[in-house]
Every structure is written in structure tokens, then in C-alpha cells.
Write a structure and sequence with these properties.
The complex is a heterodimer of chains A (309) and B (285).
Chain A (H helix, E strand, L loop, with lengths): L4 E10 L2 E11 L4 E5 L6 H8 L7 E6 L2 E2 L4 H7 E4 L11 H11 L4 H14 L15 H12 L6 E5 L7 H16 L3 E6 L2 H7 L2 E6 L2 E6 L1 H9 L2 E5 L3 H14 L5 E5 L2 E5 L3 H10 L6 E5 L2 H9 L6
Parallel strand pairs in A: 3-8, 3-9, 6-7, 7-8
Antiparallel strand pairs in A: 1-2, 1-4, 4-5, 9-10, 11-13, 11-14, 12-13
Helix pairs in contact in A: 3-4, 5-6, 8-11, 9-10
Chain B lengths: L34 H14 L1 H22 L12 H30 L4 H6 L5 H34 L10 H20 L5 H17 L12 H8 L2 H14 L6 H27 L2
Chain lengths: 309, 285
């Protein structure tokens, strides 16, 4: 089966500023694909180009076999877009929002009605049909925007930071709904700057930084390849810092790496042995964390910077 | 802009075509059928809020008609047997509805474009940006038309006492209001597309709409004004709408009105296009 998204040396420039600097990626039908990166990495520009709302500057971008640049309308018919901010129609009720949106796709009323029922139920909003938008909580608005994005039964669902600004409970509910949609065969493309979200949801992802695609793969593979198995995170006092760094530098070996972000020292590719040695140098064991590597460490290892600022 | 060669040597996708310049996503398409969907959205919101939306813009012209027409009118002598309130009625019939179209194209459009994200939400669907803007302009014109029709009905009701309406041709002010609404709505949308804050919108109102409101011959005859002011007034869309309205309400129709009809119709086309082009740039960026 041909990929549902195919991007080749994709560029977006705004005047002299290069937001997306020639990235390549493919998303297979049915995949849960993520774009992970800090703010300003070019994630939103990328997915807005995939959504057909932002013209590409250069390169090729096919969605469902359609060249987005020339056939944006064909592309928009087969995708659902969940933007970063909840741009619901505040002047209309929950249900009316979906009815009006269905009309933009020319979906006849009698087809739209059962779909709206289903979408509301799926997003656990069935009792809120007549509610006003400003009476909904943040999590409910988010779910309604997702329900709205499902109204044309899209093959591809595109979400821009779907859980930014939600409390942990609302966030987990959104995650569950997205996994459910994936099980139903919907391809999902999302951006996030939360490494736990990317790790939990995505089959495959690319890590973006300053417009470039700096790594691509399955979350676990990326972690194994770039960050090793375990990480030592040390918060030394200024007096202890030099000793900790010296100790790590002398023992870490070829496969390990040491990174510093402000007061925190990260050692990638370490073993329990390193932990014991460092703990001996730091008088408070709570300032030494020995843990599994994650995508945050991948980003750190590739860029020397933290993912979330 | 040159195409960067892909890093790998995989065969290029069959449908690949080289982008030429910034077309067609940045070019202009003729708005199609989906324009109606945008108009429908505005209509639905309007019917939800109609009590707040219909009455104030209707009361304002009536208070003005009676206040100025009967109050001030007692001191105004136009010559002949025309009462000032009778002179005022055709002007009010199109001048106040112009405000409604203006507000829709300025504040209504501004909020939908920015705070509410309505344009962005619609732009993600198969509705083209051109259709979003066209739907907005046609909606502004619809609001103007509706208000002209409602005021015309009130003028007819008052006619037995005040002798305001002299001809059944008043019904033709409805299409005139629509064309004027397209014109005003288009210019308004074009201005809104460049606005960076709400306060900037009031410049359009104070420097364009308000002078046009007063100096288009709706409240006093402009042929008494100095020559340069008359020339300026000729470039106001409302001047032609008022002239037509006056002829249709009184029944004093002459062949010269073709000029006024032609002016509005000819000006509406480039204005419509300008509105679409300007606002599309703001939506697609």
C-alpha cells in the first residue's frame, strides 16, 4: 500500500526565516506517527502544510496520493484537522457546531445526524448536545474539536499538540480516545513537545529541531540508539559539580555521554556502577537519579539542549 | 526558487509536479458553491441572536427619522411642498443599513478572523478561502438588504400620516441595497484584512463611513455644497444609492439613474475581488 503521507525535501520559508528546512518522511496507512520537538522546531508548519492550509515553499508533499499544492481540496476531504487552539463556534451549541461543520463538507443532513450522534458518544459528550461552548471544560472542548474532526470520516487525523493545556486526567482521556481511533484504522499524525505523550502514543516518530528532522524511528529504537538504556541525572551543588564531572568523565567510556543543562548533569549510557560512584560524591542521595532513558534524553543527546524549555 | 534534490535515489512519486511560483494555492479561484455554506453559518448564528441583532439597527433609523424629520424638520424649508421628513426617508432607507453591512465586515469579520478562529476552522475543510470571504461579503450585503426591507416596511406603515412613500418602486431599493452592501462589505473586509487591532477598525469608520453617511445627500442636498465636495461625494457608493433610493421612493424616475446603477454595478466587481484577494492573504499565510 502506498504511504498516506509522503514528504520529500519539504521546505517552508517565511521571508528569510526557514521554518522547515527540507525534511523527508513517510507515514503508512494505519500508523500513529508523531512529530516531536521543542517550540519553534517547525512541527506546526509541517502539519499545516500536510493539512493543505499552508502553501509549501518547496519540495513535494503527497497526502493520500494527492499533491497538496495542487489538490488541497481533495486532501481536505479525506483528513480531519484538530488545531492547537479550540476554534469552536462560540455562537452555536455543541451539536450545532458539528452540524454546521458537516455542511462545509457537503454532508447531507440525514447522513450527518447519525455521525454526529456517534462522534459525540465516542467523545463522551452525548449529554452535552445542547450546551453552550463556554459551559464546557477545557478537556470537553478538546474532545469536541476531535469529534468535529471526525465528521467527514477521515482516513487521516491530524492533531497539533492535542493535550497542551489540559490537566492530567483530561489528557489521559484524550490519549485513550486517540488510541481507540487508531484501533479503528484511522491514521494519526500528531505534534507534541511532551516526550511522554510521544512515547506512549506513537508507533513511529521524527524528532525535529530548528526545521530539521534530526532522528526518525520507533520510540524504543531511538532511545536505545541515542540514549542507551539507563541515565544518571545528578543535581550537584556547585562545590560538588567538578568532582562529579571528573568522576563521570573518567569512567563513562566510549558508549556514554555527558551533558549539562544549567545545574543538572546528565550521563547517558551508564550502569549501576556509575551511580554508586557518583552517590559517594554527592551528600544527598535524592539529588542523584538513576532511571531508564527516554525521548527527552534522545533530544538532549542529539542537540545538547532540553526538549521543554 | 529551485528544487532541492532528494537525498535518496528512490524513484519520485508518479504524481509529482514541480511547483510553479506560488500558484495555485496562493492564486485566486472564483468562489464556488461552498460560499453558500459560509453564508448559512452566519445566517444560523443570526437567527439564534436575532432579537439582539434586528431591533437596535431598526430603532436607530426610526428615532433619527422622527427626531430629525419632525423635530429639526420644523425649522427646515426645502422649497416646494416637500417636508423635511419626506426628504429624509429615502436617505435613511439606505444610509443606516450601510452601517449594518459595515459592522458585519469590520467587527464581525475581525472577531471571526482572530479571536474566534472561525476562518481557520473553515479553512481546514474543503471550503476555499475565497469562498469564506465571498460568503462573508454576501452575508454583509444580506444584512444590509434585510434592514432596508424592514425600514421600507416601516416607512410604508407611516406613509398615511407622513406621506413618506410615493411609489411602489420602493421595492427596487432592495436590490440596490444588496449591491451597495456587496460594495461596502468588500471594501470593509479588505480593510479588516489589514487591521492588527480592533481600535484600527474605527479609523475606517470615522474617516470613510461616517463622512459618506453625512455627505451622500441623505440628510441634505449635496448640490448646495462646493464643487470639490460634490466631486468627492460622487466617489461615495452611498451617494448613488441615495440618489436611486430617492427616485424610487418618490417615483421621480429618470433615464439619468442608469449612471447611478452603472456606477454601483461596475464598482462592485473590482471591490468584491479586492476584498477576496486581501482577506485570502490573511487567511492563507
Amino acid at each position: 500500500m502506498p504511504p498516506i503521507i509522503e514528504a520529500r525535501s519539504l521546505f517552508k520559508r517565511y521571508g528569510d526565516f526557514v521554518a522547515v528546512a527540507g525534511i523527508d518522511f513517510e507515514v503508512a496507512e494505519g500508523e500513529f506517527f508523531g512529530l516531536l520537538g521543542p517550540n519553534g522546531a517547525g512541527k506546526s508548519s509541517t502539519i499545516r502544510m500536510v493539512s493543505g492550509v499552508l502553501p509549501i515553499t518547496d519540495g513535494t508533499l503527497l497526502v493520500g496520493g494527492h499533491d497538496v499544492y495542487y489538490e488541497d481540496r481533495e486532501v481536505k476531504r479525506m483528513i480531519g484537522v484538530i488545531p492547537q487552539d479550540d476554534n469552536l463556534d462560540e455562537d452555536l451549541t455543541v451539536r450545532r457546531n458539528l452540524e454546521v461543520y458537516a455542511r462545509y463538507y457537503d454532508i447531507p443532513k440525514e447522513v450527518a445526524r447519525p455521525r454526529i450522534d456517534e462522534a459525540l458518544e465516542l467523545m463522551q459528550l452525548q449529554d452535552w448536545g445542547n450546551a453552550r461552548i463556554d459551559n464546557l471544560s477545557g478537556g470537553m472542548k478538546r474532545r469536541l474539536v476531535i469529534a468535529r474532526g471526525l465528521i467527514n470520516e477521515p482516513r487521516l487525523l491530524i492533531l497539533d499538540e492535542p493535550t497542551t493545556g489540559l490537566d492530567p486526567q483530561a489528557r489521559h482521556l484524550v490519549w485513550r480516545k486517540l488510541r481507540l481511533l487508531r484501533e479503528r484504522g484511522v491514521t494519526i499524525l500528531l505534534t507534541t513537545h511532551y516526550m511522554d505523550e510521544a512515547e506512549f502514543l506513537c508507533d513511529r516518530l521524527i524528532i525535529m529541531d530548528r526545521g530539521h528532522n534530526i532522528a526518525e524511528g520507533r520510540p524504543r529504537e531511538l532511545i536505545a540508539r541515542h540514549a542507551g538504556r539507563d541515565v544518571l541525572e545528578v543535581h550537584p551543588t556547585p562545590a560538588e559539580r567538578d568532582a562529579v564531572l571528573a568522576e563521570l568523565e573518567s569512567t563513562i567510556g566510549e558508549s556514554g555521554r555527558i551533558e549539562r543543562i544549567e545545574d543538572v548533569v546528565y550521563a547517558l549510557g551508564v550502569t549501576d556502577h556509575h551511580r554508586e560512584r557518583v552517590e559517594a560524591l554527592v551528600n544527598d542521595p535524592y539529588r542523584v537519579h538513576f532511571r531508564r532513558a527516554n525521548l527527552e534524553d534522545v533530544f538532549l543527546s542529539l542537540t545538547g539542549r532540553a526538549l521543554a524549555e | 526558487m529551485t528544487m532541492t534534490a532528494p537525498e535518496d535515489s528512490r524513484p519520485l512519486p508518479a504524481r509529482r509536479r514541480r511547483p510553479r511560483g506560488e500558484l495555485p494555492m496562493v492564486g485566486l479561484a472564483i468562489p464556488g458553491r461552498l460560499t453558500y455554506r459560509v453564508w448559512q453559518r452566519n445566517r444560523d448564528v443570526f437567527f439564534r441572536l436575532w432579537k439582539a441583532e434586528v431591533l437596535p439597527p431598526l430603532l436607530e433609523p426610526l428615532v433619527t427619522l422622527l427626531g430629525l424629520g419632525l423635530g429639526l424638520g420644523a425649522f427646515v424649508h426645502l422649497g416646494g411642498d416637500v417636508e423635511y421628513v419626506q426628504f429624509l426617508a429615502p436617505g435613511i432607507l439606505v444610509a443606516f443599513p450601510m452601517f449594518v453591512a459595515t459592522f458585519e465586515a469590520l467587527y464581525g469579520a475581525y472577531f471571526r478572523m482572530t479571536q474566534h478562529g472561525t476562518y481557520a476552522a473553515i479553512a481546514a475543510t474543503p471550503v476555499r478561502p475565497e469562498e469564506i470571504v465571498a460568503g462573508e461579503i454576501v452575508w454583509a450585503a444580506t444584512r444590509m438588504t434585510l434592514n432596508t426591507a424592514l425600514i421600507a416596511a416601516v416607512l410604508l406603515v407611516l406613509t398615511p400620516w407622513l406621506g413618506l412613500v410615493g411609489s411602489p418602486l420602493i421595492v427596487l431599493t432592495i436590490p440596490i441595497a444588496f449591491v451597495t452592501g456587496i460594495l461596502i462589505g468588500s471594501i470593509g473586509i479588505a480593510y479588516t484584512s489589514r487591521a492588527q487591532s480592533i481600535s484600527q477598525l474605527s479609523y475606517f469608520f470615522s474617516l470613510f463611513i461616517l463622512p459618506m453617511f453625512w455627505f451622500s445627500g441623505g440628510f441634505f442636498p449635496i448640490d448646495e455644497l462646493p464643487g470639490w465636495a460634490q466631486t468627492l461625494a460622487w466617489f461615495f457608493p452611498l451617494t448613488h444609492a441615495v440618489e436611486l433610493s430617492r427616485a424610487l421612493v418618490t417615483g421621480n424616475v429618470s433615464a439619468g439613474l442608469i449612471i447611478n446603477v452603472g456606477w454601483l454595478a461596475v464598482a462592485a466587481v473590482p471591490a468584491f475581488w479586492l476584498g477576496i484577494a486581501a482577506m485570502k492573504q490573511r487567511i492563507v499565510k
